[in-house]
Amino acid sequence: MAGGDIVTVVESDDDYGTPGEAHVEIVGTLSPSVSSARWSPDEELLVACTGDGQVLFMSRTFDVITSAIMTDDDLKLSKHVSVGWGKKETQFQGRGAKAKALRDPTIPEKVDEGRLSKNDDGKRCTISWRGDGAYVAVNFFSPGSGNRRVIRVYNRDGELDSVSEPVDGLEGSLSWRPEGNLMAGIQRFADGHVDVVFFERNGLRHGQFTLQIPKDQPEAAEDLALEWNADSTVLAVVMRDRVQLYTMGNYHWYLKQEIPCAEYAQVEGRWTLPWFSWHAEKPLLFAVAAPERAVWFEFILSIARGPMCGGMGDVAVIDGRTVKFTPFQTANVPPPMALYDVEVDYPVTDIAFSKDGSQMAVLHQKGMHLFALEKQGPAGRRAAPKLLKTIPLDNFENKCQLQIAFAAPSQVQVLSQDDFQLQITGWDFDQELMLGEVGVGLQAVTLTSADETSAEEGTVVQDRQRNITRISSEGNGETVVLGKFPALLPWATYTTFEDQFIAFGLSRNGHLYANSRLLVKNCTSFVVTDKHLIYTTSNHFVKFIHLTANVDELDVPLDDPETDERCRSIERGGRLVTAMPSRMSIVLQMPRGNLETIYPRAMVLAGIRQLVEQKEYGAAFATCRTQRVDMNLLYDHRTEQFLENVGLFLDQVKNAADIDLFLSTLKEEDVTQTMYRNTKAGVVTATTQQPAALTTAPKASKINTICDAVLHSLKAKKNANLQNIITAHVCKNPPALSDGLQVVASLMEEDETLAERAVEHICFLVDINKLYDHALSLYNLELTLLVAQQSQRDPREYLPFIQSLHKMNPLRRQFTIDDHLSHHEKALVHLRAIANTYSEEVESYIVKHQLYPSALALYRNEPGPLRTITALYASHLRSLSKFRDAGLAYESLGDYPSATECYLKAGSSSWRECLFTSSLDPSLSSDQRQEIASTLADALREAKDWAAVATIQAEHLSSLESAISALCKGYLFADAFRLISLHSRPELLESHLDPGLLDAFSSSTEFLADCKSQLKAQVPRILELRVKAAEDPLAFYEGENPFGTRTGAAGGDIPDDISIAASSRVSTSASLFTRYTGKGSQVTGTVASNVSRATSKNRKREEKKRARGRKGTVYEEEYLVNSVRRLVERVEGSARQEVERLVCALVRRGMSERARAVEGLMSEVVEGCERAVGEVWPQQQNGEQQQQQQEGGEQDGQYEGADWRPTGGDAVLADSIEAMRRGVGKPVVKKFERLSLLGGR
């Protein structure tokens, strides 16, 4: 390039050149030289910078498209004005900041002139493209550019966009972040430290951070290069003998890895930068190369965390030579800070924790350190890590140390690279020596400490063949293959559950595996505790899977955080840092780097259940109170255990206010069956364990059971737990206020101070007005006065009343109190005791408060008062138009005229009683009795009780002709024949019976003909409507088809996202409801209609339309189906029996042709009903199948959105469709049996 030649190297193949060789060609020369060149990301443009300051834009065929000359005029393009981004002057200084300490942040303290670094000879030029290829930056030094190094930004057309502001010590390295927001460069200071500085596209500075230069080899940073990875998350700083990888979190730059590459950087005895390149697609894959060799490295971003079970949430973060250590159970320190900063001599490579969380091992390229993790203080907080042992690795400089893991206490195994071979060596910190190589030939890729749930010591590795192998810590490191993943999984965690080894692994594309089973495809991070697999998803949920010994039984929850405790929404992009089952919490890190500790409902409920099972009621109560969990769970989870250990519960909770809180939150609902249903497979709750015979028994009140148990335990501690005793009484269902007040009354005799405290407490729990009334109902005036004093009542209201009660005798006082409280039944008892006999005061009180049933029961053994009260009650019933009951009362008193009058007004329901009492009334004449009988016959005729009419006409009015006519109208022809024979009146057969038969024949024939015509008209119309609904449901539900032609068998073009299921209760885009009503559901909009039925007024209008079932409306089918059902039920009900009796009577009178005609017509109607039932209700073949379909439909309805219900007019249409879908059941049609005398079969 110094000569300006552009050389192409083409790998040869069979068609070009000699196989196995490369074709080298000089395609052109640029004068005087080529300082730098770079292809665009799409490889369509080549930008080259010459030694004389020209920038050339060439095509892929090396044709010059445009060029630009870098001159002094370029510096005039941008007038940089800094607003002090990130400066101290722009930050909030607090209220105490003085005005003199403030300065203008736009005026810098020192103005850079762009002086060259002493390490920069001005010859280096760097070109870097933005990730999208729209802009390119050139870092070039020319004496004509103000004698400083300038970064110029050009667009793809070669037009200058901006130039950088002057920066002293700026060197030639440059790398544009693929995201495009920052350009990274190198700034070297006179004191020797080096910063990575960032520029925006407009040339302004945008922050910086200081490089961690090796203290023992500062010359390694004399020449530097920068390279961003593909996803802009890692910045590689290439030095002479090493490569440093930096990442940024929460605006802090961490040195995550330092890879030694001295052997790649020395060429013929001189130092040069190793060739470094990131992979274009895989973000953390890069290559380091030299003329003789090339090595590929691939990293993953993992979290060094301590044990989950029994640990303290220990997490360590690597930042160069600093280990940022934070035990989250002790403190949640936001990054980039940490609770403890542990310094080591060299940049850290890896960190491991022991199984019991008591030790931490730190690995770097020069050695290993063992730290003790101890607790301090009575609270058991984590102390600062204490250095125990150090093992130097100076004799292993030719190895690249990669990973470290604990094999046993104070024993570790290290994965390292040596001459392109991966090997694992064992080390003992106690003896400070190497134990030798273990796992020979495994080709391990990942090395992990054994899980804390395993009883065996050793490490677990994953090799290139995807095998999972345990390496023992004893002997020569024996290996045991535990399983195999379906693919090489970078993130893996191992656990032992119920003596079964389970390996969980996560691939780079988000596939989470349990052994070989694929669980989910959108996982972003995961951790494993002793009970759960916890993972986050790309849908921004954190989910919990209950561990099982069989991985095929792992139940993956749905995305339903509203109803499933195993799913919870989190902030977008959150990743799991650690989990603390003892604290029932997890720690999440957001994309910006900040931490968030949350308490997921699944972990909280699992912890509470475990505490209840361990009888740790105090801790369980505190957790429920802190996490706002319904405290009924303390009882419902283990009901019998709780009742047996109520005393233990009270001793552990201790605080009286906490016990009151528990009692006041009790409810009859079993929360383990509703809001806190256990989602772990195989768990059988107490409710499901009960025998079927016991479920029908009346259930005792849960609240009262708990309160009684608490009261029984507190009997011995009455004074100490007085507050809880009163609360237990008051919290019963219904509240036992009287019992609570009785406790207060007993205390008034023992200790007035305690009594006052008790009254204050009970007044706090209950409405003071109700409490005052209950105290008054106990007839204890002192207690009533004490309660009244705690209320807000005016003493002028209750003091005169209480004083007047003091002056009364006990019985009068009790009557007055009960009457005041509207306890009239009790007051009547006291009033009877006062008078000691029946008096006018008693009678007036009974009449005033209508206490007749109570008075009858009270005076049932006193005949005189009983008759008087009965007469009053009869008069009262008569005034309420309850004539039948009043007639019974009068009849019991022997008042037959009044009884007859009441029975007569009662109508057809009491005609027998009325005829009886009228016969006993001596004041009535014979004509008057017949008039009463005639009136009753008319009433029964209106009620169509023809048998009763015939009885009155024949037996009481002596009108046999009218009786025969009534029986014929009721189709009671056999009774008519019997009456004619009984009274020896054969002439009535032709004069009255035969005309009745002919009238009945005419009526039946007309009715059956109407039934036939109705079936012929309505059944085909129902089938026609159903065909229309199936062909084009949108048009059927009152809307034109906006998608063109009709759909159906001819083929239509309704979009796939349109719901056409008539039973659907939720819409996706344009359902039947939205099409018909014009109202969208909660998630979609309408299609075309503008009709709205959302108001109550429109709902009533829609209900009227549904009731009418007018032709052409959506309710027509439902109306017709119900009409056919009513017709079939009428035919199968009274019509069949009436026709059968009519046919028999016609045959008896010799009218066989008429009988045959009406019988044939009835047969045709029954056959038509059978066909109609089969066509109108085809899907309901039997009751069992229909029930199964309905139950299946209810279960299938539990989908997302099933809770949505339409409102207004939409609800009427929804009810109509739901009624049509479910139906009432297919009507039954029996076979019609013809009379054999007429030739029937």
* Main sheet: strands, sense, barrel: 4 strands, antiparallel
Number of strands: 52
SS-derived structural category = alpha+beta
State the strand order across the main sheet.
Answer: 3-4-5-6
Write down the overall geometry. Answer: elongated
**Low-confidence runs:** 684-698, 1039-1094, 1181-1203
Task: Give the distance, in angstroms, between the N- and C-terminal Cα atoms.
Answer: 115 Å
Approximate strand percentage: 15-25%
Number of helices: 35
Question: How much helicity do the residues have?
Answer: 25-40%
Mean pLDDT: 83
Radius of gyration: 48 Å
Topology overview:
Blueprint: E1 5-11, E2 22-29, E3 34-39, E4 45-50, E5 54-59, E6 64-69, E7 126-129, E8 135-142, E9 148-155, E10 160-163, E11 170-176, E12 183-188, E13 194-199, E14 205-210, E15 225-228, E16 234-238, E17 242-249, E18 252-260, H1 262-265, E19 266-267, E20 270-271, E21 275-278, E22 285-289, E23 294-298, E24 304-305, E25 314-319, E26 322-327, E27 340-343, E28 348-353, E29 359-364, E30 367-372, E31 375-376, E32 381-382, E33 386-392, E34 400-408, E35 411-418, E36 421-428, E37 433-438, E38 444-449, E39 459-463, E40 467-471, E41 479-484, E42 491-497, E43 500-506, E44 512-514, E45 517-520, E46 523-528, E47 532-537, E48 541-546, E49 567-569, E50 575-580, E51 585-589, E52 595-598, H2 601-613, H3 617-627, H4 633-636, H5 639-644, H6 646-653, H7 656-664, H8 692-695, H9 702-713, H10 722-730, H11 737-750, H12 752-765, H13 768-777, H14 781-790, H15 795-806, H16 810-820, H17 824-835, H18 840-849, H19 852-858, H20 863-879, H21 883-893, H22 896-906, H23 911-920, H24 926-942, H25 946-955, H26 960-969, H27 973-982, H28 988-1031, ...
Helix pairs in contact: 2-3, 3-6, 7-10, 9-10, 10-11, 10-12, 11-12, 13-14, 14-15, 16-17, 17-18, 19-20, 20-21, 21-22, 22-23, 23-24, 24-25, 25-26, 26-27, 26-28, 27-28, 28-32, 28-33, 31-35, 32-33
